[in-house]
Amino acid sequence: MSQNGARYRRVLLKLSGESFKGTRGFGIDHDAVSYMARQIKSVRQMGVELGVVVGGGNIWRGAEAEALGMDRASADYAGMLATVINALTLQDALERNYDVDTRTQSAINVQQVAEPYIRRRAIRHLEKGRVVLFASGIGSPFMTTDTAAALRVTEIDAEILLMAKHGVDGVYESDPNTNPNASRLDFITYRDAITKRLGVMDTTALSLCEENNIPIVVFDLFVEGSIERIISGERVGSLVAETEPIPAG
């Protein structure tokens, strides 16, 4: 553990598009963005190297566009552009309001506003203390930003994947919106999460984390200080891993 109380040296945070809309039904809530930027700054002050994969569902959902008749590949590329908008908004808040040095890397070519995703360059930014925002998923249609998070956490050698949710504080045995008696699972294995289809993330992403033994924490982003508590080693939300860790002490 570092002198600042951080249990992890390098972390990958997945921010859903839902997080960016905050209390709004659609688009970007700048109060929510400012909150996320403040939480990220707190993590950096702990000395943790932080990469962030950004979703885009607050602006565009490819699956919904496809259901209305749009070509799926085109719909997914539009979704990638939505993630770029969110990343640039968060980058501006981090740099302008919180003085956090930030780089946005995109898996599709938008060189006027973002660097291309280059693994070694991303790692170098992290080593220099910069926050790296990963936009455009993996740059291919038919793949979710959850899959991008599972891939990037492995590529940048991060130790843990933090799945930040909006209004959901973990993984439940059934949908808490339809079953008010559903119990939250403090721990679940990768295999059970896949076979029981508990909605942690898509199957491809879960399988990739399982293959590389990357622990996943699912938590409510909008509980103040939750990221810092996780990074300090506290049990927050739900842990998805191969085996449940033995409690300290």
Outline the secondary-structure elements.
Blueprint: E1 10-15, H1 17-21, H2 30-45, E2 49-54, H3 62-67, H4 72-98, E3 102-106, E4 115-116, H5 119-127, E5 131-135, H6 145-155, E6 160-165, E7 171-172, E8 184-185, E9 187-189, H7 190-195, H8 203-211, E10 216-220, H9 226-231, E11 238-241
Parallel strand pairs: 1-2, 1-6, 2-5, 3-4, 3-5, 6-10, 9-11
Antiparallel strand pairs: 7-8, 10-11
Descriptive overview:
The chain is of the alpha/beta class and 249 residues long. It has a single domain, classed as Carbamate kinase (3-Layer(aba) Sandwich), CATH 3.40.1160. Helices cover 38% and strands 18% of the residues. It is built from nine helices and eleven strands. The strands form two sheets. It has a nine-stranded mixed beta sheet, with helices on both faces. The protein is globular, with a radius of gyration of 17 Å. The two termini are 15 Å apart.
Name some characteristics of this structure.
single chain, 249 residues, Carbamate kinase, nine-stranded mixed beta sheet, two-stranded antiparallel sheet, 9 helices, 11 strands, 18% strand
